[in-house]
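Late entry, evening session. Most of the bench is empty. Finally got around to the prediction I had been postponing all week. Sequence below, unchanged from the version circulated by S.P.
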Amino acid sequence: MQKTEFLLSLDELLELEPGTVKGSETLESLEGWNSLAIISLMALMDERFGVTLQPRRIAACTTVADLVALLDDKIA
């Protein structure tokens, strides 16, 4: 999956207009970023990327770029 596809998936997960998330945002600045979003993101990462993450790893992220980094080599 491409980074742009991940960002669009994050838009959808947060119920934002497609193209809203660019990658440099802080998570706290994104409308809809909360504990439910973390759980939904965990499911998305597992389903689409085969990556199982502990909630604390996602909670430690402060930016969208940090989330992308969790996917390591699964994203281009």
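Two things to note before I forget:
The chain is about 50% helix and 0% strand.
The two ends are 6 Å apart (CA to CA).
Will write this up properly tomorrow.
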